[in-house]
Amino acid sequence: MTLLEGAKQLLTRGTDIGGRIEALSDAAEAARGVVDDEVVDGALAVCERAAGRLRLSSTHTVVAIAGATGSGKSSTFNALTGLELSAVGVRRPTTSWATACVWGADGAGELLGWLGIPPRHQTTRDSMLDTRRESHDLEGVVLLDLPDHDSTEVAHHLEVDRLVALADMFVWVLDPQKYADAAIHDRYLAPLRTHSEIMVVALNHIDTVPEERRESMVADVRRLLADDGLPDVPVIPISARQGQGLDALRAEIAARVADKHSTVARFEADLAAQATLLRDATGTAPGRELPEARVTALEQAVSEAAGVPTIVDGVERAARVRASRSTGWPLISWVSRLRPDPAKKLELDLGTAGKQLRGSSTAAPETAAVERARVDHEVRALVDEVSSGMGPGWSRAVREAATSRTSEIGDTLDAGLARVQLNATRVPAWALLVGVLQWLLVLGALGAAGWTVLTAASGTLDETPQVAGIALPLVLLVAALVLGLVLGLVCRGLVAGTAHTRAAKAEENLRGVVHETVSTLVAQPVSAVLAAHHRTRAGVDKVLG
Questions:
Q1: Strand 169-174 relative to strand 199-203: parallel, antiparallel, unpaired?
Q2: Residue 481 confidence (pLDDT) above 90
Q3: Which of 18, 226, 265, 536 is most buried by its number of CB atoms within 10 A?
């Protein structure tokens, strides 16, 4: 069973914390490489800790007693356990390990191992060390006495920080003379402002404070806690040495343990805190897809920069000229061969398409610069629209995804356009048949003309067959000439239609290349970032409700 699967078992106990762990983990993984590693690693670490804790004993609550040197923290621990387990005052040990006392040993061993408490620092309250009869209010409590958080020993700080991240509940023991010390407020209390549900503050040594000042001192502690963002944390004045207030503190701990909510509440607060950091880094933008209109505008700009409209016009002209030469009256259409062949210009336009975007076009430099500037403008507009409201990391990721490969557009277009079959110079079969027919009519006209000349020269023209009183050779000559002209005129419409169809097909294929290029080099990378952003937002929103 994985840690997350173990955490999901809590779903059967009326909480969705397992789903929240999975949601935050997925959100953090999606943000990897975009959001600062510190935020991502913090979120994943909380998920790991929460899943690890929630798969362990749910009948035990880990209560950590923490405080500064001289606050009476260990005296409070001993008073609550009824055993002299922690050395106090000048007899305090130099070890960096915490001391644990467990009420109810069944199932606690694995939990203590997860907490990293060595066996020699563990005691069970129902062991042979204690034979007194007492209530079972603290049944299921794992009480920890942490090292002094203000110790000069670095190892003590590390141990306190480690266990503060793992405990289900905290009892912060303050001293009347040092309760305003910034060391505990700035390092622990204020950063844990989202964890007020699992905190209790014990103002120890209250017996040393004049009775008339006690109420105002407790009020001052509450004021400082409110400044830390913890206005609802209970403050219980106690004297561990005299036993004053210990019943109230024990009752507060017992009440928290009885509802079995502290463990879940602690990690719900952890998850919410990390999700908030991730949300702040992600920004206010909702999950969104790449706007189709922006992609279309970019493709249009790339098409025009690459000269696609010019190429399409060239295809139409070349197709019209080649078909017209085949279908036109041969005695006149040969004149068109004296004009520049549009197919050659088409080849030139096609060969320089990508150069427009690489800055090496044979076109006027000003024109090429304007076209490239338009492409750059459309890319920036796309970036600005999709990254609006995103955090800095996500905005940067969108910009890099959109621009990192734009320098490849020219070469990619050249490679793609080279594969396009324009068919601009291929004469359609019907035009070839018309061409053959035109030459047959020309030959017929030449034959009729020769017949007419021969009969006229021999004086026998009037003796030749007549059609409506006109000599047959003349009729054939005129008919051949008229049919050739009429056929050429009639085919002009077919030629125009064929040229238009060729141009439309060429435009479709060319724009397909542009679409594939823009999709591969810009749209897909940006969409990948947007998908990751959507995953992050969805996970964060689920954790924060």
A1: parallel
A2: no
A3: 536
What are the backbone angles phi and psi of residue 134, rounded to the nearest 5°? -155, 175
Q: Judge if 52 and 192 occupy the same domain.
A: no
Angstrom distances, CA of residue 9 to CA of 112, 142, 260: 21, 22, 15
Kindly state whether residues 201 and 117 are assigned to the same domain. yes
**Residues 415-419: contacts with CB under 8 Å, at least 24 apart:** 416/513, 416/516, 416/517, 417/306, 417/350, 417/353, 417/354, 417/510, 417/513, 419/513
Mean pLDDT in residue range 314-330: 72
Which of 227, 352, 225, 228 shows the shortest CA–CA distance to 236?
A: 225
Q: pLDDT tens digit string along 372-381?
A: 788 889 999 9
**Any domain includes 453:** no
Same structural domain for residues 222 and 343? Answer: no
Distance CA 269, CA 238 (A): 28
Answer whether residue 448 is part of any domain: no
Handedness of CA 169, 175, 180, 186 (dihedral sign): negative
Biggest alpha carbon–alpha carbon distance for the chain: 155
SS3 471: strand
pLDDT number for residue 524:
95
Both structure tokens of 380: 């920036």
pLDDT exceeds cutoff 70 at 466 = yes
User: Residue 252 class from Cβ within 10 Å (0-12 exposed, 13-18 middle, 19+ buried)?
Assistant: middle
Angle between helices 472-518 and 429-458 (to 10 degrees): 160
Identify which has the larger pLDDT, 408 or 473. 408
Claim to verify: residue 81 and residue 129 sit in the same structural domain: yes
Same domain, 204 and 343: no
Say whether pLDDT at 409 is over 70. Answer: yes
Provide the domain count of the chain. 3
Q: 294: Cβ–Cβ under 8 A, 6 or more apart, which residues?
A: 378, 381, 382, 385, 386
pLDDT, residue 307, reads: 79
The answer as to whether 366 is a domain residue is: yes
Q: Is 52 exposed, middle or buried (0-12, 13-18, 19+ CB in 10 A)?
A: middle
pLDDT, tens digit, 9 for 90 and up, residues 193-223: 989 989 999 999 999 999 999 999 999 999 9
In angstroms, the CA 370 to CA 375 distance is 9
CA angle 258, 229, 281 (to 5 degrees): 105
What percent helix, strand, coil does the chain show, rounded to 5? 65, 10, 25
Containing structural domain, residue 73:
60-259
Asked if 204 and 71 touch (Cβ cutoff 8 Å), the reply is: yes
Whole-angstrom CA distances from 73 to 69, 112, 353, 410, 442 are 8, 21, 79, 72, 118
Q: Are residues 335 and 410 in the same domain?
A: yes
Clarify whether residues 42 and 190 are in a common domain. no
How much of the chain exceeds pLDDT 90, in percent? 41
- Beta bridge partners, 171, equal 65, 200
Same domain, 274 and 299: no
Q: Residue 36 — very low, low, confident or very high, per pLDDT cuts 50/70/90?
A: very high
